[in-house]
Each structure stands twice: as C-alpha cells, then as structure tokens.
Amino acid sequence: MKKYQLGEFEEIVILTIGILNNEAYSVSIKDEIEARLARSVSMGALHTALKRLEDKGYLKSYPGEATEERAGRPKRYFEITALGKKAMQHSKATRDQLWKAIPKTVLQIDIGGQVL
Amino acid sequence: MKASGSPPKFFLRFFQWYCDPKMVGYIEGDLMQVYGRRLKTSGKKKADWKFMIDVLLLFRPGIIKPIELFKRVNTYDMYQSYFKIAWRNLAKNKGFACINIGGLAVGMAVSMLIGLWIYDELSYNQYFRHYDRIATVLVRGENSSGPWVQRQTSPPFGNEIRNLYGAEFKHVLMASMRNNVTITAGDIKLVKTGYPFF
Question: How far is the alpha carbon of A23 from chain B, nearest alpha carbon, in Å?
C-alpha cells in the first residue's frame, strides 16, 4: 500500500487545486483553504507541500503572468497529473473502505441516555 | 505599488539569499502579493510583522537552496547512456561486432602469450647462483657478406683466458659440441651424448 503516498495536508492541497481548476496558484490555494476550512496556512508549509507533490509527480506546474501586485514576479500555476488523480482516488477509496468497515454503533454519540 | 510602503528590506534580502533559485521568483511574488493585500487591510506595522513571520516559516528544507557541496553531477547518467548506446550498436551490427570482439580477443591472447614468452626468456637459467655474472665468449669476424658471430672458439683459447683473466672469474669452462663422449673409469665405460665441459 506504499504505492500512493498522500499526507493529510497534501491531500487538502491537491483537492483544493482540483476545486480551483486552472486558477490554482499558491496564493489562491492558500486563500481557498483558509476560506473553506477555516484554518490558517503558512506560506512555507504550502510551498513545501506543493514541491513535494510535484516531486512525487502528482502535480505539474507552468509559469503564468507577472502582475504589478506581485512586484513583477510570475505566478506558478498547478495542474493535477494523471498519477495525481489516481492517488486522490486511491486515498478516497481506502477511506471509504475503512468507513464502511466501522460498525454503526461505534459512531453513535451517547449524551445522557439520548442517542444522537 | 499603490499603497505606499515596502516589506522589511533585510527580511526580503534574507529570503532571496536562502531560497532555491528555481523557486525564488514565484515565492517572492506570493510574498509581495500577500504583503500588498495585508497592507491595505491591516496597516503597515502588522503587514511587516506577518511578512517577517512568513519569511521565517519559509526557511525550511525543500525551499532553502541545495548546498553546492552536494550538487548532483550527472556523470552516472552519462555513462549509463554510453553503455546503452554501445550495446545497441553491437546488437545492430552483429557480424561486425563478432569480428571486432573476436579480433580483440585474439589480439589480447597473442599479446599475453608474448608476455609469457618474454617472462620465460628473462627468467631462464635464473636458478644458477650469480646467474647475472655468467658470460659466454663469442667470436666476431667479418667476411664478404658482412659481420658474423659464433660461439665456437679454437681449443687453446680456454687456457689463454684462464691465464689472462682467471683472477676475475671463479670458473672458466670450455664446452665441446654436442657429441658422444666415452667416460672411462677402470673397467667401466660410459657413453653419453651431450655437451662435455673441460
């Protein structure tokens, strides 16, 4: 099962890139994660995750336009590769499989005799 | 930049210094964009402060440039390619490769034999004590067809050398041509073929 390795944060990043679809570059990814998941993302963590995903072959990047607000520096857009899509599906499949295997009663939360 | 003010110079410089040159442009762009946005929403002081934190949080492996000392030099791949191409060429021209490799093998075998021969020649007769001090007297002459050399000398030559140079040598021996020699001791007679010494 070592075939696809996707850490928790890496999974969030690659899913967000999927959501942004063609508009995924570091700042937009950061904004999207912060907006959707209400957690702050440091630039360092994000860039290392992106680099690691790219090294694994799950992401592909290409340089984009340079704007004034970026002090003339180009953006770097990210795209999910076929291997990346497989890794995402693999991680979802394994999660689903585990979820199905849990007996229903385990997930029920019992508060004062009342079953939620 | 519309909102006046730029990020702390020192931290920007620090970032540009440690960052991997392959990523520096992109990440610096991100930093500037986020800085500009924060400048508008929360003021210069806070934006500066957050910029510093970002720069410090970016200081981590993967973003820091690789140390030059461990820079990968591509020689392994180069040699791998050479061997691959050589192998493909051999497979493509099989007849030529056979002649080539066979010729090389024969050449190597012959040169090894020559080496063994030279070794044998050089080690010949080394089991004699002071083998490097043993000499043969040769006679050199000249006739109409040029110079000649031979081992045969006239019989009195031995005694003459013993008289003149005997002090320089331990032994001076005369050997005859290969022939049958009869050795007599009382009644016993022994006939042997060989090179008798006198």
Answer: 14
